[in-house]
From TrEMBL:
Signal peptide: none annotated. Residues 375-399 are annotated as: Disordered. This is Interferon-related developmental regulator N-terminal domain-containing protein. PANTHER family: INTERFERON-RELATED DEVELOPMENTAL REGULATOR (PTHR12354), INTERFERON-RELATED DEVELOPMENTAL REGULATOR 1 (PTHR12354:SF1). Residues 375-390 have a biased composition (Basic residues). It comes from Nannochloropsis salina CCMP1776. Belongs to the IFRD family.
Length: 399
């Protein structure tokens, strides 16, 4: 991958905390996980939709907690084939879960996987443009962008997807109408791929067109869409600064749209719509103060990510958008993946030895996503057994 900014993700390492695993626990856990994963793959073919949805939830939880990572990678052809098959014919909830699982799988298998990516690309594109479920279209948009970012190595494909997402949030996409929530996902997807865009994509001649695409989105009713558009503009501004171009170093054709954007960003950094709650107004002002500082003054964003005794500092919009996409995919498993996922280490140029964390886990924490799922499932199964037992007892008494 080629990134717009290289030295923008800094790590400071403190004293590590040593952890141990009981002798033989790793092998036992691995054997148990192999059996559990084989059962999961088989359950993906269940006839009942609710059974498949439960199976997908367990698969996603296991991938995010790194319980099934080795098994998923070893059986990746079967996993991808099953997920794509389900995605093609799924309804809303199942479709969302399929897209989430596909995103996790592509993050796990890593870069230079064009064959796998091409297997999932067309079904995801179809769901985004032709799907009936809005939630599934949004999740498929995030998954397609992440897959292109992680697995794709073809520059032409990256350019095609930049155009695909641009058409989505400008209203020129094929198929169904895009809601503001879907457009926000499209802007974020475009921003993620822009961080690895081939040189020459963002030419001086195309700058005005890019800015004109985002200007009307700043007046959208959706706060997510307004913020996504503002962050995309900040990302463009950061890139132009790195290329030695100031915001006002523009042609006559661009000057008007640049002035309009700066004025609008400054307004949004000071006030909010009367229809917004006080909390939403405060959040918008905070977001756009940061965006405005980047666009007008060239200031860098900053966020510190802490993991146990270690902290990592993000200092660019490029890295902020990349981490945002990873968080959307990993959710509660983000810090686990940060410590163990070599793809993430490569993206941010991290030293894997800085993380003193055992890869194999003999026990699933009760408060983890997988632990909560297992507790809920056990409770549901227990109620079903008690109900069946009670029904059998009543029939015996009647007889």
């Amino acid at each position: 991958m080629s990134f717009l900014s290289q030295e923008t993700f800094e790590a400071s390492t403190l004293a590590g905390v040593e952890e141990t695993t009981a002798p033989g626990a790793g092998a036992a856990a691995s054997s148990r996980n192999n059996g559990d994963f084989a059962d999961l793959l088989e359950k993906l073919n269940e006839k009942r939709t609710t059974a498949r949805e439960d199976c997908l939830r367990e698969l996603i939880a296991g991938l995010r907690s790194y319980t099934f990572v080795d098994q998923a990678i070893a059986n990746r052809e079967s996993v991808f084939s099953s997920l794509v098959g389900l995605l093609r014919r799924s309804r809303e909830t199942e479709g969302v879960l399929c897209a989430e699982a596909l995103g996790m799988m592509m993050l796990l298998i890593g870069p230079e996987e064009d064959e796998i990516f091409n297997l999932v690309r067309a079904p995801l594109e179809f769901v985004i443009t032709r799907g009936q479920s809005e939630r599934t279209r949004i999740e498929a948009t995030r998954t397609l962008a992440l897959g292109s970012f992680i697995c794709n190595t073809e520059e032409e494909r990256t350019l095609a997807h930049l155009a695909f997402f641009e058409a989505l949030f400008t209203g020129e996409s094929e198929g169904g109408r895009a809601s503001e929530e879907l457009k926000a996902a499209g802007v974020d997807a475009w921003s993620l791929l822009f961080t690895v865009a081939p040189r020459g994509y963002n030419t001086h001649e195309s700058r005005a067109l890019l800015l004109e695409n985002f200007l009307p989105l700043l007046d959208a009713s959706s706060a997510d869409l307004r913020v996504a558009a503002g962050e995309a503009i900040a990302l463009l501004r950061e890139h132009w600064r790195q290329e030695g171009l100031a915001v006002h170093d523009v042609s006559a054709d661009e000057e008007e749209v640049v002035d309009s954007i700066v004025d609008r960003l400054q307004d949004m950094a000071r006030e909010g719509s009367k229809r917004m709650s006080r909390k939403d107004k405060k959040a918008q002002r905070a977001s756009f103060r940061e965006i405005c500082s980047a666009v007008v003054d060239g200031q860098h964003p900053e966020e510190v990510i802490s993991y146990r005794t270690r902290s990592f500092r993000l200092t660019s919009w490029v890295k902020m958008k990349q981490v945002e996409a990873l968080r959307d995919c990993l959710q509660g498993g983000f810090l686990t993946a940060l410590a163990q996922n070599t793809v993430i280490h490569d993206i941010f140029d991290l030293d894997p030895t800085a993380f003193d964390v055992p890869v194999e886990r003999s026990v699933v924490a009760k408060n983890s996503e997988l632990g909560r799922w297992r507790t809920t499932t056990r409770s549901r199964n227990r109620r079903s057994r008690e109900k069946a037992k009670h029904h059998f007892t009543e029939e015996g008494e009647d007889a």
